[in-house]
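DM from R.C. (forwarded with permission)

"hey, sorry to bug you on a friday — could you get me a structure for this? deadline for the figure draft is monday and I only need the backbone to look sensible"
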Amino acid sequence: TLTIAAAGDINSAGAVELSGTSGISTAGDVDTTGDDITFNDAVALDGDVSLDSGSGAGAIAFDFAVDGDQLLSVTAGTSTLTFAAAVGGVTPLSGLAVNSAGVVEVSSTLAADDEGIDIDATTVNFDNTVTTTNAGTLTVTNAGVLTTLGLLNLDGAFAQDGVGGVSLGGGITTSADDIDFAGAVTLTADAHLNTGGTGAVQG
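My reply, with the result:
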C-alpha cells in the first residue's frame, strides 16, 4: 500500500502518477502547475484531501474506486475530472467539492454524507446512481450540460444553478427537500421527481 500522510503533501511542476500494489491510502494534498494527477489504484481517504492541477490544463483521474469518510476537494481548471469506478461505494465520502473543471465524468455510483456534493464545471455527467445521506445536498453549477443517467437519491436538496441545461435520464428523490432547476430540462427517459411531500420543485 502506498501511504501518504497529511504532512506528505505533494507540490509538483510536472505530472503526478500514484500507484500502490494494494491500493493508495492518503491524507495528503496534491498540487501541480497545470499537469495531470492520476491515481492508478484504489484510493482510501484517511483525511480531507485537496487536489489542484491549476487553472488551465491538467486532468485529474481516479482509475479505481475511491472511499473514505473525508472531504475530497478538486480543482481541475478547464480540464477533465474522471471517476472511472465507484466513489463512496464501500464508505461514502464525507463530501465532494469540485471547484472547477471542464468536464466531470462520474462513470459509476457516487455516494457522499453530510458535507454533500458541490460541483462547479462546464459539463457534468452522472452515469449511475448518486446518493447523499445525513442531509447532504447536491448542487451543480454547470455552464454546459448536466447529464444524468441514473437516480439521484438525496437526503438533502438538489440545486442546478448554472446557466447550462439539464439532460435528465433518471429520477430525483429528496427527503422533504427542494428540487431546483435554473436551466432548461430535456427528458431522455421517464423521470419521477419526488420531494417526499413537503419540498418544492422549481424551474
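R.C.: lifesaver. The two ends are 47 Å apart (CA to CA).
me: no worries. The longest strand covers residues 110-121.
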